[in-house]
Design a protein that fits this description.
mainly beta, 8-stranded parallel barrel, disordered N terminus
């Protein structure tokens, strides 16, 4: 019996030892599984992510706990409709999807307040369900997007949008804000979006249309890192409330910006056409390669900014109303003060190429510029350039290589164009300037040069010059330290043509031109050379290398900043520091 108990005891001991080792092994495996169920993201540990398999196993998408995965148009359509898909939810797209007859997510009463991460996937937007047009004012994948607070902004990011939209609104009650990502954006961010395809839209009411967003508003609201090859053809009308009545704003990235909203690092290669001519309603059109522009008003209120952005497509604006504004970057920017750049509506470190045109417009006063059509009430264009063609082809024009019109009425809200250059061809009707078409009261043009071919097809009645056309700013040093390097300046007629600025009441200082530059007109050209004269002084030959001024000329004579702003390019002309 003892031997049997001993044998049993020995076996039990061995079994217990084996059981302990199994327990230890199980614990280790469980611990490993726990860590495997966590993903390190930045400096934070996200517990219990969901791993969504996709076609390529190496591209599996990690969905953080609490997020809702979207893998089909059916699931996408549940957002804001199904209680399990709330408007304040966090969403991750896990598959490419196609949206047809799409009803936008969120409206003015119940906006989308959450976060949508496209995870690099593509949404193909084929058509929109306009439905009751009076209700569907805000159009896009998301209609109305508004974050809960500055610290809890709504987000739309990380995806491509391919558009085949071709829609006609028959609404007589309201206008529309339309953008592929969002119609309306407030206290929100659009980031890392790629746009392609075509966007066509017709409405007899006011339209705010942008490739990414139609209308953006509010300090901290931001559209950034958007790249677009989208071609836009918008036929807007007039009137309505979208969200306010007034002018039509059409832009390659954003329609209209307001109340401190920003546009950063956005690049448009597509064409923008804003054409009111074939609309039954008589509208007024603001068309821009990046944005239609800021809110237009006759005051110095700050509205926002466009920085580090570009447009390399063509921009066309046409309308039957009084005003057509067109610009390579923006149609108009308004508001600001010389005392605080951050309180100034501005375009900085931007460029545009291609053709900017209002040819075919019926408006009484087209404002057209390579960068901006109308720079107004203290706004600023800085460290930007245009290299392309500007076409007015209409009487009453304000046509410039950088800005069509530069104006303000009282300090400290002086509108400014600083450290800019232009190249290509400008074709005005009665007015043309290599930098500014009309440089009006209380403005500044500083440290700019132009190599544009400048011409007017009719006459020079409104002023023609290598730097500005009409010039009437009487501020001290209103146009200063600029140089006209234009190959030619020609006018179809009249006597109001000079090398640097029109010979008006405006103040000039320290301006130069190539000695070989002689304006031509079928009227009479009268030479007026000198540092403070409308022809500027001849560039001294000892500062020339061929027919190009040396860096010493720009630094020592014009006092340009080559430490922070300028550098010499390989072609012998100055470039901006940020240029490649």
């Amino acid at each position: 019996m003892k031997s049997l108990r001993k044998s049993f005891t020995q076996k039990r001991t061995k079994n217990s030892q084996r059981t302990n080792w199994f327990a230890i092994l199980a614990f280790i495996l469980a611990l490993g599984a726990m860590f495997a169920s966590c993903e390190l993201q930045g400096d934070n540990l996200i517990d219990n992510p969901i791993r969504i398999p996709v076609d390529n196993p190496t591209d599996d998408i990690i969905i953080p706990d609490g997020s809702i995965s979207i893998s089909s148009s059916v699931e996408m359509a549940k957002i804001g409709i199904d209680e399990d898909y709330p408007l304040n939810g966090a969403y991750h797209l896990t598959q490419n999807i196609t949206l047809s007859n799409w009803t936008p997510i969120g409206n003015g009463t119940s906006p989308f307040t959450g976060k949508f991460d496209g995870n690099g996937k593509t949404i193909s937007l084929n058509s929109i369900n306009l439905g009751d047009n009076s209700a569907n004012t805000f159009l896009g994948i998301f209609g109305y997007v508004k974050g809960a607070s500055d610290s809890n902004k709504a987000e739309i990011k990380n995806m491509s949008i391919s558009s085949a939209l071709d829609a006609t609104s028959t609404s007589t009650a309201n206008g529309h804000s339309i953008g592929l990502a969002a119609g309306y954006l407030e206290t929100a961010v659009i980031d890392k979006i790629t746009l392609s395809g075509n966007l066509k839209f017709y409405s007899e009411r006011t339209v705010f249309a942008g490739g990414a967003a139609g209308y953006i508003t509010g300090s901290g609201t931001l559209v950034k890192n958007v790249n677009s090859t989208l071609n836009m053809t918008i036929n807007p009308g007039s009137g309505g409330t979208a969200p306010v009545s007034g002018y039509d704003y059409i832009g390659g990235i954003v329609g209209r910006f307001n109340n401190g909203a920003g546009i950063e690092n956005c690049h448009n290669k597509g064409n923008v056409i804003a054409d009111n001519m074939n609309n039954t309603a008589s509208g007024q059109v603001f068309a821009g390669g990046v944005t239609g522009g800021s809110t237009y008003a006759m005051n110095a209120t700050y509205h926002g900014y466009v920085i580090d952005s570009s447009s390399t497509g063509n921009v066309t604006g046409k309308c039957k109303g009084m005003w057509t504004f067109a610009g390579g970057i923006a149609a108009t920017i308004v508001g600001g003060t010389v005392n605080d750049k951050n309180a100034t509506t501005r375009i900085e470190r931007c460029f545009a190429t291609g053709t900017v045109s209002v040819e075919g417009t019926n408006s009484g006063n087209p404002y057209i510029g390579g960068i901006v059509g109308y720079n107004y009430f203290g706004a600023l264009v800085s460290q930007s350039y245009f290299n392309g063609t500007v076409i007015a082809a209409k009487s009453g024009d304000y046509t410039g290589g950088i800005a069509g019109y530069n104006s303000q009425t009282a300090a400290p809200g002086n509108s400014r164009i600083e450290d800019c250059w232009s190249a290509g061809t400008i074709k005005g009707f009665n007015n043309a300037g290599g930098i500014v078409g009309q440089n009006q009261v209380n403005t500044f043009v500083r440290r700019c040069y132009s190599t544009m071919i400048v011409q007017t097809t009719n006459n020079s009645n409104s002023g023609v010059g290598g730097i500005t056309g009409l010039h009437s700013s009487t501020n001290a040093d209103a146009v200063t330290s600029c140089v006209a390097l234009n190959p030619s300046i020609t006018a179809g007629g009249g006597n109001n043509v000079q090398r640097v600025t029109q010979n008006g009441t405006g103040v000039r200082s320290n301006n130069y031109a190539l000695a070989s530059l002689v304006p031509t007109t079928s009227g009479t050209y009268t030479e007026r050379k000198g540092l403070t004269e409308s022809d500027g002084a001849d560039i001294p030959s000892n500062y020339l290398s061929g027919n190009k001024p040396t860096q010493t000329f720009y630094q020592s004579v014009l006092n340009w900043d080559f430490a922070n702003v300028w550098k010499m390019g390989s072609n012998g002309y100055p470039k901006l520091k940020w240029q490649n």
